[in-house]
Amino acid sequence: MRVLRLVLGFLLRPLRPLLIVAPTERAAWIAAALAPVALLIAAAAPGAWVAAPLLAGGLLALVALDALLAGRVEGWEIRTAEDIEVGQPSFLAVTARFVGRTPSRAEAALACDPRLAEEGRITLALAPQRDVPGWRGEATLTPTRRGTAPVERAWLRWVGPLGLGARQVAYPLEQVVRIWPDLSPVRSPDLQTFLRNAQIGLINRRIRGEGTQFEALSEYEPGMDRRRIDWKASARHTRLYARENESERNNQIVFAFDCGQAMCEPVDGLPRIDRAVSAALTCGYVALKGGDKVALFGFARRPQIITPFIGDARSFHRLQSAAAGLDYEPVEPNFTLALATLTARLKRRSLVVVFSDFTDPTAAELMVESLGRLVKKHLVLFVTMADSEVEELIAAPPGDIATLARSVTADSLAQQRKLVLTRLRRLGIDVLEAPWENIGPCLIDRYLAIRGSEAIG
């Protein structure tokens, strides 16, 4: 069928500069049905062979006539957002206005970057609008990776009343869609309510009763935490006194992203690195509101980006722009070079949140050694996402030998993973492992617990 359409298109090629004509699928089916008729005529009456080209010519004439009756396009436009977020749906709309006869069917297609659509192609059908003149079609774009996605070319095709011929126009486009990290958790009502009701970041004042940095002594009263009693001061004054501590601010938080092979693997449709970036930016926003400083660090084979520390929530967009520049590299990360570079840049003790993943203990050996050196000078929090596919394989009922083998292999991988995480904990590294949808809230809770314990400074 596709060959027949190509043949009809080639025969109509001389007319295209004038008519911009293209045969439809219906015309191809009719041509396929007429082919046996032409063979039958040639076999039964060889002298009537001229009927075959006459039938073909008649079909071509009908295709051309139908395309002429389809009318012409007066104008059409494409509307899409210039800035969208990875994993979040965005609407694309194509509108067209026709003059002359109303076409029976219209459709549009766009050639774009594969980040926006599978195989880099978007197709949508147009339908007449009820309230305003013209035809309109909509499609939903869900980008799968960050970056700059060009929309290169667009086609509009509308069919005549008989459904045999169509007109088609094509235009080159210079439209670019910028795909940013997902900030929907930052805009969520739950987080905004938490920040509005939290004690951090509301006014610039000292907060007593939190942390371990000494502020003052006060007389002990029933109901206070007994662990706050200062026994030496109480012995000197022969009365019970409790310590009041000041919550420390101006901590340095570094979010370090492994952009290597393991973090490029998808989890529920998006790469792990994008899930990690969303969680880190959400926690970074909370940290900025709390008066701490935040920086981003990305690495794979070599360091990609390292930002200066941002201490103002109004400059949060700088972190978002830097996170958008984190690239996907299908290579093994060089933890030794990356963490040595980070250590050289940090002039004071900081909280380093490392987002990474691994497949086996051998691949994680250099990571464990490098993190062991880093934890000697800084507080390290290792964040990894639980693999839901492995858990599903482990929990699958052993219906046959293949399923049982997959379950045993998955369980072996899970045990090896636990061994690596246990080694990290023994080195004094705090480990956070959770499903990707819970990584953001769990990371915020862990950060607030670390900040409240005054373990950073």
Quick synopsis:
The chain has 457 residues and is of the alpha/beta class.
Describe this structure in words.
By secondary structure, this protein is of the alpha/beta class. It folds into four domains: 68 residues, no CATH class; 109 residues, Immunoglobulin-like; 211 residues, Rossmann fold; 39 residues, no CATH class. Strands 1, 2, 3, 4, 5, 6, 7, 8 and 9 form a nine-stranded mixed β-sheet that branches. The chain has a six-stranded mixed β-sheet with strand order 16-15-12-17-18-19, sandwiched between helices. A hairpin with a 5-residue loop joins strand 8 and strand 9. Helix 3 packs antiparallel against helix 4. The longest helix is centred in the C-terminal third of the chain and has 26 residues. The protein starts with a helix and ends in a 5-residue tail after the last helix. 30% of the residues are buried.
